[in-house]
Amino acid sequence: MSLKAVLFDFNGVIIKDEPVHLQLIDEILVQENLQPQKLHERQACLGRSDRACFQDLLKNRGRVVTEEYLTQLLQRKAEIYVLELEKLEKLPLYPGIEDLIFQVRTQHIKLGLVSGALRQEIELVLKRAKLIEYFHVIVTGNDITTSKPQPEGYLLAVDKFNQAYPDLNLRPQECLAIEDTPAGIQAAKRAQMQVVGVANTYPFHMLQRQANWTVDYLTDLELERVQEVFLPKNVNLTAPE
How far is CA 197 from CA 104, 109, 113, 167, 180, in A? Predict the structure, then answer.
């Protein structure tokens, strides 16, 4: 077994935009004449898709909406998100993301992205950051009906890789996920993937209990050491004397 694919989360791993999302969700709620999020609701939304988050928030406030109306709310939020990011002179990308992508590419490992965010939000950021060409597979909230911690997004990414690259014969056990929340880590683990937790959103010690590896920053991740875990047990990495 070898490491064949690295799958990134988006919000909280590639871009530091969680505060923007939480603010926009509150704006939508207020526009709907509903109370903004409470602290525990904000925490519960981290790592989950906007659809799942809004479903819970609306339910908590006794508001029943159709799937069509919920989709309209999500689209409205996505449009405001795009406008907010266009105001920024520089995208708030996490340090080390470009270097890590370069490391993965030099090792000839496939790159993927699995997120509950909508495709237009993800593509806006990746295109502006000039990173989109490096991602072979992108799974977004438009593609799945469940949210992390459910593994559907990660399993779909494996299917998409195998459709695009039939000779790859990718299995979930040959993937490494990079996540910043317990929900994301659980999703990847349920898909039978190894996971790196990066302490961008939650404290190191909280992620350390759940992830296979935990780092404070992406710049701390040593890809070669992680790759060793995926090698067959009988492979000797030391040079002969």
Answer: 17, 19, 15, 30, 5
**Distance between CA 75 and CA 56 in Å, rounded?**
17
Regarding whether 153 and 42 lie in a shared domain, the answer is: no
pLDDT in tens, 200-233: 999 999 999 999 999 999 999 999 999 999 987 6
Residue with tokens 């809004």: 54
Q: List pLDDT tens digits, range 108-148.
A: 999 999 999 999 999 999 999 999 999 999 999 999 989 99
pLDDT at 59 over 90: yes
29's enclosing H/E stretch is helix 18-31
Any domain includes 192: yes
pTM: 0.89
The answer to whether residues 164 and 140 touch, using CB atoms and an 8 Å cutoff, is: no
132, 113 contact by CB (below 8 A) = no
The total domain count for the chain is 2
67 and 122 fall within a common domain: no
Continuous segment of H or E residues that includes residue 39: helix 39-45
CATH number at residue 70: 1.10.150
Q: In the block, which residue shows the tokens 């909508």?
A: 118
Please indicate, yes or no, if residue 237 is contained in any of the structural domains: no
Rounded to whole angstroms, how far apart are CA atoms 193 and 186?
10
**Do 52 and 114 sit in the same domain of this protein?**
no
Range of the domain at 48: 18-87
Q: Report pLDDT digits (tens) over 99-108.
A: 999 999 999 9
Q: For residues 131 and 206, state if they share a domain.
A: yes
